Amino acid sequence: MGRYSSVQAYADNNSNVRSISYEEATGSKDKKGGAVKAEKVSNPYGSTAGAGSGDFHVYRHARAREAMRWQQLDASEQAKQEDSEFRRKLEEDQAALER
Predict the structure, then answer these.
(1) What is the Cα–Cα distance from 46 to 63, expressed in whole angstroms?
(2) 4-25 residue pLDDT tens
(3) How far is 52 from 5, CA to CA, in rounded Å?
(4) What is the dihedral of CA 4, 6, 10, 12, to 10 degrees?
(5) In sequence order, what are the residues at sequence separation of 6 or more whose Cβ sits closer than 8 angstroms to the Cβ of residue 84?
(6) Most distant CA pair in the chain, distance
(7) Whole-angstrom Cα distance, residue 32 to residue 5?
(8) How far apart are CA 89 and CA 86, in angstroms?
(9) Phi and psi of 53, rounded to 5°?
């Protein structure tokens, strides 16, 4: 027998399992019908349980895209800071010349 029994693995009292009614999921208690609102998964690559052989490459490419996005954000922020510093220095020099 393994480390955990099936009773432990599939217990109904697991606090991570959410159970809500259909009315709560649709957002209306008196309306009939309507689409069920799915919960958004913000990090679908967070777990590797049951991952296939190609999933690592998908994760690696997604991580590379995110790193590139952060690099672009950092570069644009640096350019904005340099531009504002240049403009501030230019205004100071122009004010000094006018005196």
Answers:
(1) 11
(2) 555 555 555 555 656 667 677 6
(3) 26
(4) -100
(5) none
(6) 89
(7) 41
(8) 5
(9) -70, -25
Closest CA to 30 of 38, 22, 39: 22
First to last CA, the chain: 89
- Cα 75 from Cα 81, distance rounded (Å): 10
d(CA 3, CA 8): 10
Q: What's the mean pLDDT in 66-94?
A: 95
DSSP conformation class of 84: H
Tallying the residues shown for the chain, one arrives at: 99
**Three-state SS at 11:** coil
- 54 vs 30, 57, 62, 68, CA distance in Å? 46, 6, 13, 22
pLDDT at 3: 58
Supply the pLDDT for residue 1. Answer: 47
